[in-house]
Specification:
Low-confidence stretches: none
Structural class: mainly beta
Shape: flat
Distance between the termini: 64 Å
Helix content: 10-25%
Number of helices: 8
Strand order of the largest sheet: 3-2-1-6-7-8-5-4
Largest sheet: 8 strands, mixed
Mean pLDDT: 90
Strand content: 25-35%
Number of strands: 32
Length: about 575
């Protein structure tokens, strides 16, 4: 007997719900009952939005029967509310911040989901249904009532599952998003949701947050203690730095309560600023200080603490491993003295470290990977893998950079981080041959609040030009199976991409965009030229011998040894070198 697979889409929305029971301590509410939501709360002192309602939706024609297969997801238990397939726009990488048309940390994955709107009996959504003096089935609509009761839906989790009837939910492809918008017409709604990084790219969240404290009275330029009003201990760390005007002040203690704090043990005019008389009501701004902190730890702090991204989405052990392997020397000292967009801080840090940050919808994790060579990229061939007629190549001359100017080591931490005069050091790297060959110079500038080291500045400048010296090439193609995804490196051989003789060439590419066209049948990709990933330098002990002086045992056991021709132990050419 032959069984035909029937595709099944399930949309799950997680709605926060108050865990309290109306009128039962600690909820001392009285009168008409709430709907256990924030907007309908009658006794906010007891509000506790730690419970949730899980709402599942399927298409009407998917909900009509019970599935006998053991462990199968049962569409009959879901609301038959979907009126069309979810429409996706996948995440996109912006490699080394080289594309001016994209944000520094790329573009967000977006899904738009159409739902029908219909009368609803409120079963499952109203714990006090029996107390109501009306029939909910004849009053309002399912989404109309939901939106009125849940106006603070932004940030709710939306999960989209795609599989086949008879699959367990855990066996289906799962995508996780953050609800951002609900549009409603007379008889339907459209829910828009974006990937988790939208919490820092679409909200304008800043780090550090604007501090509420103000000086209680004037202070002189030599006072080592002062009082701040309109603030609490949670607004400032126990020790650290604050900014008042253009002065940075270090303190060793802050204490108080009832909206008044006293800062003591103060050192005035630190970090190349000047101690000055400060006036009553001057804002006392918290300063975020990273002192000799490795880049992966800074990024974790920026997006989790600064951006509010849940730690469950941050595979920090993987971040640490990647940084240890490729960016162990990227240790930074920097001070953020004014509220700054978290998106900008994350993008600047990625650019300064030559790293990529993106949302991986397959793993439901935020990935943090180095711009680095892949010793064993996935091989794709036009005859065996790439779908016929899908390969296309596009040139992007506007992204070429023959010279790179890096401004680093800020003079003043209270000055502009986009003004070249506020940086002590600058490093320019030119590819003279490229400028001769292309008959023009194409400069690009970067300002880095993170880099203090000349060695890192040289490495960054040289690697950037190494990657962008030539006209950037991007390809698109389709595969019948999702063997690679965003962030993966591939080695593609295709007859439309040839060598000097016209024979099919084999080149390295970095997948910057991946999306499902037909689940189980067609997947579309975009990729960027990755042949010139850049010369990546490894710092090693002085006792490590050069290739020519190494023993056969050393050559066989040190995995990244290259011979004089730049080839690894298997004879494959690699784009990294040892310093």
């Amino acid at each position: 007997m032959t069984f035909t697979k029937e595709p099944l889409t399930v949309v799950r929305i997680r709605q926060p719900k108050c865990s309290r029971t109306f009128g039962v301590a600690p909820c001392n509410a009285a009168g008409s009952r709430c709907w256990n939501t924030d907007a309908t709360c009658r006794f906010r002192a007891a509000l506790d939005m730690t419970a949730e309602i899980v709402m599942d939706f399927v298409a009407k024609d998917e909900s009509h029967e019970w599935i006998a297969a053991p462990g199968a997801y049962q569409p009959a238990l879901a609301e038959p509310g979907l009126i069309g397939a979810p429409q996706y726009a996948p995440t996109e990488l912006n490699v080394a911040d080289g594309d001016d048309d994209k944000a520094s940390i790329g573009l967000r994955a977006v899904v738009q989901i159409p739902f029908a709107d219909y009368p609803h009996n409120d079963v499952g959504f109203d714990d006090y249904l029996s107390t109501r003096a009306y029939d909910p089935l004849t009053q309002g609509t399912r989404w109309g009532k939901w939106l009125k009761r849940n106006p603070f839906y932004e940030g709710n989790t939306v999960e989209v599952y795609e599989g086949n009837r008879g699959d367990a939910l855990s066996a289906m492809t799962k995508r996780v998003y953050r609800m951002t918008k609900v549009d409603r017409t007379a008889d339907q709604v459209q829910v828009t949701a974006k990937d988790i990084l939208s919490q820092i790219t679409d909200t304008g969240v800043r780090w550090p947050p604007l501090s509420p404290g103000e000086l209680q009275v004037d202070i002189t330029a030599v006072q080592t203690a002062f009082t701040v009003i309109n603030a609490f201990e949670a607004d400032y760390p126990a020790t650290g730095y604050v900014r008042i005007g253009d002065e940075l002040i270090a303190y060793t203690s802050r204490a108080g309560g009832s909206g008044t704090l006293t800062f003591s043990g103060c050192t005035r005019g630190v970090l190349n600023t000047t101690a000055a008389t400060q006036k009553q009501a001057s804002r006392v701004q918290r300063v975020i200080a990273y002192e000799a902190v490795r880049g992966d730890a800074i990024m974790k702090d920026i997006i989790e603490v600064g951006g509010g991204i849940p730690s469950a989405f941050v595979p920090y052990a993987d971040w640490q491993g990647e940084t240890t392997q490729w960016r162990a020397e990227y240790i930074f000292t920097s001070y953020i003295t004014e509220p700054t967009l978290v998106e900008d801080l994350a993008g600047e840090l990625c650019a300064s470290m030559l790293m990529h940050l993106w949302w991986d919808e397959r793993l439901q994790q935020i990935r943090f990977k180095a711009q680095a060579p892949e010793p064993a990229p996935v091989a794709l061939d036009w005859q065996a893998d790439i779908l016929k007629g899908s390969f296309k190549e596009i040139a992007h001359p506007e992204q070429r950079a023959s010279r790179f100017i890096l401004y680093y080591r800020p003079r003043s931490w209270v000055g502009s981080m986009s003004d070249s005069t506020n940086f002590q050091s600058a490093r320019e790297y030119r590819d003279v041959l490229a400028e001769t060959q292309y008959r023009t110079a194409t400069p690009r500038e970067m300002f880095s609040r993170w880099i203090q080291s000349d060695a890192l500045a040289v490495n960054l400048a040289g690697t950037y030009v190494g990657r962008f010296r030539d006209v950037r090439r991007k390809i698109s193609f389709s595969l019948a199976a999702p063997v690679v995804w965003t962030g993966d490196q591939v080695r593609v051989t295709h007859y439309a991409d040839t060598d000097f003789t016209g024979a099919p060439a084999t080149n390295l590419w970095l997948i910057t965009k991946a999306e499902t066209i037909i689940a189980g049948a067609a997947y579309a990709y975009e990729a960027e030229d990755n042949n010139m990933v850049g010369a990546l330098w490894e710092w090693v002990a002085d006792t490590v011998p050069e290739w020519g002086a190494a023993t056969p045992e050393q050559k066989a056991t040190i995995g990244y040894w290259l011979d004089d021709d730049g080839r690894d132990l298997d004879g494959n050419p690699q784009p990294w070198r040892w310093l």
